[in-house]
Amino acid sequence: MDESPYIHGRSEQETDRLHYQASRLADLLHRDTRYPPGSRVLEAGCGVGAQTVILAGNSPGATFVSIDISPESLALAEQRVRAEGHRRVTFRQGDVFHLPFSEASFDHVFVCFLLEHLPDPVLALRNLLGVLKPGGSITVIEGDHGSALFYPDSPDARRVIECLVGLQRQMGGNALIGRELRHLLADAGFEGVNVSPRQVYADAGNPQSIEGVKQIFIAMVAGVREEAVRTGLIDADTWERGIRDLHRTTGQDGSFCYTFFRAVGVKGNQERR
Amino acid sequence: MDESPYIHGRSEQETDRLHYQASRLADLLHRDTRYPPGSRVLEAGCGVGAQTVILAGNSPGATFVSIDISPESLALAEQRVRAEGHRRVTFRQGDVFHLPFSEASFDHVFVCFLLEHLPDPVLALRNLLGVLKPGGSITVIEGDHGSALFYPDSPDARRVIECLVGLQRQMGGNALIGRELRHLLADAGFEGVNVSPRQVYADAGNPQSIEGVKQIFIAMVAGVREEAVRTGLIDADTWERGIRDLHRTTGQDGSFCYTFFRAVGVKGNQERR
Predict the structure, then answer these.
(1) Is A215 helix (H, G, I), strand (E, B) or coil?
(2) A181 to chain B, minimum CA–CA distance in Å?
């Protein structure tokens, strides 16, 4: 099977992590993404469908076309969406640099955790602008690993996070992209861009939030251990200390913050390209 | 006049900065701090009264006793509060390590931007617990300079912020204290501690937010230039570049985030000390 490289891999464990992440963050990130009945929405980079089920559930009258570059992920997404009983979602293999759609064929576009993996996010956004109808909106949601703030602070913990950032950069991506959403959307030609950060905070006062840090963030960072040590970005001892220190932030005295960014832009009637 | 050292100084310009900061952030930080009519509230570390006028305005039926270590700041606070017409605020010179009050004499305690300047914040909190009645609450609001996240990112900009953090540490304070509020309150003996981060986001899409970054954050960092260069924490050229880069984050393509932390704790009926 022809597979594009993906920093987090495509294991069953990673699929579970993505679904857990999406459901835990559904309210924070997606509560205000609702599409009117009859609207036709493109979800670009649906992956294993973790966000697709939330989108479809929140906008039962809208029709979704969800694309991904990976046929393997698409198959999992389709299986998941069918299992949840959503009938207004169509899946199609495709990527944002070669969109298999005609100009102005969607009312809205939705993108989540995709731009961070792309070498040219502005080109991707321009392509998405192209398939959007004038007056239609794009919603983009991305994280920013530079936003991780924790107690106890630890240089080793910061080093392991920087390994993920560095490896993603080597693959052409940008794990610090959240803070850039405004200018990226503006550069691509979207108008009225509005960015709203969505911060997660966890401490022992809320055990469910702590579980989220472990299952989502620490698990994601831990996932690049082999690659980080193999390529000499970090030595094994520093890695172990860094992961141990990240886990300490989930202890009785610890705290952990992370910020996602949600941006909305509109396609003007006079396209400026 | 006997003056305690204070990292931000006590110039007229700094007083204006503090009042601007408080009014710009009033809704974000103080909207949910409301005290019932008849309650007696201690504001510890009122400074020039920037928060006092907001507190008194939001809880017109409560009585406030506002203390500060600096008689000069207290005089300015009193002047401001009287000018705004608040009559239920009493001012008194005092500091949290030698509180001039008897045990259990307040219904609630309010602390904002104070703990970050103290060598032993847990001891200060224990003292405040002492003057609080059982069942009474403490509200603590602090910033965390480690939360500053911006685009374009810049090592020089991060260096100038680290100068402020370092100087504050030399004076016995902690400019990274926001993330620690939960364990500090718990360590002091408060119960049911709940922490809620309050994030500020600014980009060119909202000119007022950009003005806030300039007038509040960049002005605060810029205020320690002389001390930072004089003590060799940074050279003058790097400083200039860092400040220039901070200003770039307020430009057309830039973005800036900062997180304050608000914590509330309660004094139990069985004091555990």
Answers:
(1) helix
(2) 9
